[in-house]
Specification:
Elements: E1 9-12, H1 25-31, H2 36-57, H3 63-77, H4 84-93, H5 103-109, E2 114-119, H6 123-132, E3 141-144, H7 155-165, E4 172-176, H8 179-188, E5 191-195, E6 211-213, H9 219-222
Parallel strand pairs: 1-2, 1-4, 2-3, 4-5, 5-6
Amino acid sequence: MDSAPALKALVFDAYGTLFDVHSVIAECEALFPGKGASLSQLWRGKQLEYTWLRSLMGRYADFSAITGAALTTACNMLRLELSDSAARRLMDAYLVLKAFPDVTDTLARLHGRKLAVLSNGSPVMLNAVVRHAGLDHVLDTVLSVDALRIYKPHPSVYAYAAERLQAPAGAIGFVSSNFWDVAGATSFGFRTFWINRAGAIPDALGYQPAAVLTKLSDLPALLK
């Protein structure tokens, strides 16, 4: 790490990295007792799957529409009757996802570099969750794929971040808990950091992060 060029900017994925997507479990459980965890996992899986499929199909829909479609599919698969009011409650839960406990302090410790979010989320969803977590005064910019109408890990998304941050790829650190996202960013040329909270096995995609962390708060020490 000492021989690597200094990082001018740090770019963070949002969902699963800064914000706990499974903080919706409580709302899922309240609506569907005994099914909360299963619904949350399946909902998230379908949400990701639909971003990739729509990118491959060339049929973009924003992340809110995809999240709603994934919720409907997940409920159908679990044979849960999703009323309009229940759907609204669950979709609203995505606007107030909890930040992981170490996020606020860690971002404060990283002050001095440009700090950005690069996310598949729609601008409305991202702005809401960032404000709810009180991160709007910490982050320099929040970037959405909506500007490009294609989802990560397409290389154009990472190029968009480099362009907006006015820095070469090698001077940008990219942080994500999603290995597919880390692989895409590494392939593009970012220096990547994988937050592997669950001890997951990396996918065999041919690209590895510069470092693997068990929590976000480990990051500042690697950048000194």
